[in-house]
Amino acid sequence: METIRQFEPADRYVYDWGLCSSDKNFAQVDTSQDASYFGTWANPFKRIIVCYCEGDVTLQIAETDAEFVAELRNIQQWNIDNGHRFLGIDPGFNKALAAKFAELGLADLVH
Predict the structure, then answer these.
(1) Residue 80, Cα to own-chain centre: how many angstroms?
(2) Residue 30 is inside which H or E element, if any?
(3) Cβ contacts of residue 75 below 8 Å, gap of 6+?
(4) In which band, very low, low, confident or very high, does the pLDDT at 10 lie, cut at 50, 70 and 90?
């Protein structure tokens, strides 16, 4: 998994409505930690996971579908282990996006 880190002062809404929107095949990875200063998004077509936390941006690019799925399961488990609720993956109204997560074996996480 390739990991790229950078600093982008803004808030999560820059990602919600722009860089990581469902129009660009990103789904929100919803947790109880979500706030204006924190968010996570995943693109199953490009196997990319983006995490924004107070300006720190981590971009993870999986080489395989299995690696992408494993990382999303790791995010789910980390939240559970650390007392946060993992609410699921929200593809919005993008049916192709929801179908791709299902194809990868993540239908149980899509809401």
Answers:
(1) 16
(2) strand 27-31
(3) 29, 40, 49, 86
(4) confident
